[in-house]
Specification:
Elements lengths: L1 H16 L20 H10 L26 E2 L15 H9 L2 E2 L8 E8 L6 H10 L5 E4 L1 H6 L1 H9 L3 E4 L12 H19 L5 E2 L5 E2 L1 H9 L3 E3 L14 H12 L5 E5 L3 H16 L3 E2 L5
Helix pairs in contact: 7-8, 9-10
């Protein structure tokens, strides 16, 4: 009887050792030390048919040792380029954006542009801008703050109902590099909650207030599952322009380039008055508008 028990035990052990790797628990598999880009992560997930069930906290983009990241503060700023030339950024910034899910420009070999709006408060122009965008079938994303959604929930609903995306721009518009991890999470998650209450949609794109960032802040927002969107074309349109709507139009026409992520402020009457001309002018140059989908 003892001999039979030993034989059965050996068989069980051998069967266990011969288990196929495909039968192992994929979700709990150890992470590779290699850091991959989001595009590589997405491609791999498609191949294994698990794109919708990937656990962000087990992705190579998730930063385990978040407190080790540098907290040096940077302000997003680009040199002005013309003749449809794309602006560049320091290599160190490029590396941070790639590593922590950040973007500022689309493909440089395609005449595609992306229209984005920042909404801090309402001055009476956004509704007409939404109508113009809708009439011209131009996709856009609106990055909103807490004050905006609390004072103009109907406008935020109108954005979503007309097919536009909502981006998270934080509750109080603070400088993120000056915050702790818990403070950053609160700024993003509280706005998330409010946006979901109003629209039923959870944003997946974040724009840092004033374009200020650090490696640490990028790591925190990436860990929250957000893609951080900067811009490659912007101007001081949050205040009245000396040249009015004509200056708004001419500035964008002079600086447009392949892959441009255009930042406009919805608080600007100049932008409202120039928007139709801007759309027509960009298309006349052979460009197409595309939704943010990095």
């Amino acid at each position: 009887m003892k001999e039979i028990f030993v034989i059965l035990t050996l068989c069980a052990v051998l069967c266990s050792c011969g288990k196929s790797p495909n039968q192992s628990n994929v979700v709990n598999a150890p992470l590779s030390d290699k850091t991959t880009t989001y595009q590589e992560e997405e491609k791999e997930s498609k191949e294994i048919g698990q794109k919708e069930v990937i656990d962000d906290k087990k992705s190579p983009l998730f930063v385990e040792n978040i407190d080790s990241l540098k907290k040096d503060k940077f302000g997003w700023g680009l040199s002005v380029t013309t003749n449809e030339t794309s602006p560049g950024i320091p290599d160190s910034w490029k590396q941070m954006l790639e590593k922590y899910n950040g973007f500022f420009i689309g493909p440089s070999d395609k005449k595609i542009v992306y229209l984005t709006f920042d909404c801090g408060y309402e001055a009476g122009y956004t509704s007409k801008m939404i109508d113009i965008l809708k009439q011209n079938e131009v996709p856009a994303i609106f990055f909103i703050v807490g004050h905006y959604i609390n004072t103009k929930p109907d406008l935020v609903k109108k954005m979503v109902e007309n097919g536009f995306m909502i981006g998270n721009h934080s509750v109080n518009h603070p400088s993120f590099p000056t915050l702790t991890e818990s403070e950053m999470k609160k700024e993003i998650e509280e706005l998330d909650k409010r946006i979901i209450e109003i629209t039923g949609v959870k944003p997946k794109y974040f724009r840092p207030p004033s374009g200020e960032f650090s490696e640490f802040s990028l790591g925190v927002t990436s860990n929250l599952g957000y893609k951080t969107i900067f811009w490659s074309l912007a101007y001081r349109d949050w205040i009245p322009l000396p040249g009015g709507a004509e200056e708004s139009y001419q500035t964008i026409m002079e600086r447009i380039h392949p892959g441009a992520v255009i930042l406009m402020h919805a608080v600007s009457k100049d932008n409202q008055d120039a928007l139709q001309r801007i759309i027509d002018g960009i298309r006349a140059k052979g460009y197409e508008f595309a939704p943010i989908d990095f």
